[in-house]
Amino acid sequence: MKRSDRIAETLEGLIIDGTFADGERLDEVQLAGRFEVSRTPLREAFQRLAISGLVEQIPRRGVFVRQPGPVQLVEMFEVMAELEAACARLAAARISDEALEEMKAINARCLEAVELRDTDGYYYENERFHAILYRQSGNSFLQSECQRLHRRLTPFRRLQLRSRGRLSQSMAEHEAIVAALEEGDAQRAAAETRLHVAVQGEKFQHLMSSLRPAAE
Amino acid sequence: MKRSDRIAETLEGLIIDGTFADGERLDEVQLAGRFEVSRTPLREAFQRLAISGLVEQIPRRGVFVRQPGPVQLVEMFEVMAELEAACARLAAARISDEALEEMKAINARCLEAVELRDTDGYYYENERFHAILYRQSGNSFLQSECQRLHRRLTPFRRLQLRSRGRLSQSMAEHEAIVAALEEGDAQRAAAETRLHVAVQGEKFQHLMSSLRPAAE
DNA sequence: GTCAACAATCTTGTATACAAGATGGGCAGA
DNA sequence: TCTGCCCATCTTGTATACAAGATTGTTGAC
To answer: For chain B, what percent of residues have pLDDT higher than 70?
Structure first.
């Protein structure tokens, strides 16, 4: 149970970054050749991908890449918003001073990135911000569920950051979250966080509809 | 991809209902014989169980049943509470009159069950109540995530219902949820739902600690 | 007597062989 | 020429054979 793990991760990356197009069929024997293994470990990897929802296995037909459609993406962002809001709610009571300081430090670096128009730098700090939020929920199950969905939404979140004025807006939202956490105001921390993530979904949705107008 | 599906479901049931004890090793060849298949479909089933977290695969050692420990259970109930609260929040704006009526009807039947001390009957109606709540979130992704976790917590929820006076208390909580939904009060619907599920976790936790005092 | 090392055996992980279902093309009939 | 049926081929699903690592029991030495 080692080789199939690596293969699953690799394939997951290739699907997430769009190397495999939506609807494309993944050929067992071809990929087996590419990875220099037999079909067995590949099939194991396929199963994992199918459970994560990255591919669909149609019996006796094969596995096909399934990128989430616009509707499903909106739904996933909605759930992400609620999960992160839950993290914030719990973190408001549980967060350590140390983590709070770290979040502030991250926000400071984010501000620099905004001024430098450094989208990649901002992205990196943003990732850390959210990772800390998950962790400070004090609920490791919630943390891992958040990480799972977060990872799944990676490419779409990244896109959304490119939206005009989004960087500074995102920053402001981060600061509001930290402020609420510092005051221990669970209600507000949750609300601010929910808004922060929901906005991402909306921005993304807007971007999508402007990119492909009236697609199907 | 059919036989392994059925096997995975069967094994999942056997693990959830406690036929396989925590820590028990699942023998590939033995189970293959029992199901009258080769090791291949069994291994596929094992993988699925491993991803759902019901078993742990230790490389070159085998698969072992992993029942969640008390800490993890509390965490899972906490997440369940937040997910269901999210359903309620969304449902408050999206629920149909029809579904609302159905929830009221279920509560009426629940009341009967409470009076008859019919725990099983109550359990069944309770399941439907929550299923409708998930559905009425209007978010199919959220719905499936809720169903997944709900299913995982099944045996522990069931246990908790046996707690003294829990039935009528649960009923009252259901009514509060429906009332908030009817008014379209998202905030309150979420809060009531969160409480309702969180109480389940607490009741369960209490039950556990009374059953095995100072276990390890 | 106890501990350590080695070997035999068992179990998992991987490859390959085999079976069965699905698809597509070709052929025949209308 | 078009349509429908059948056969060939391809791909998946399953079984089995093979390889490699882990465990355990036995034997020998201290």
So the answer is: 97
